[in-house]
Fold Halobacterial output domain-containing protein.
Amino acid sequence: MINPHDDTPWREVGQHQFDTTDELDVTLTTTLRPDETAAPRLRGIDPEEAERLLRSAREAGVDLEVRFCVDGRPVKIDTKGVVSVKDDC
């Protein structure tokens, strides 16, 4: 579970391009596990729903971020497509 009071800094690790055909789950896999073939374990998130939400917010000009856990590590992605993680949780 993501602790909302955790002050560990976020580290940018990748960029999702909303204006391409790439799916968010592919971006997460290649960003978070570049040397592995297995897909990361996404907990508490449907990547397609998150992408639709972020895309809609982006089109409406609203800043939004979605936070979730991947392999037990907090991850967030915002409407600009920036993928960030917390390493020391």
Remarks:
- The first strand starts at residue 11 and ends at 15.
- The helical segments are 24-32, 47-59.
- The mean pLDDT is 83.
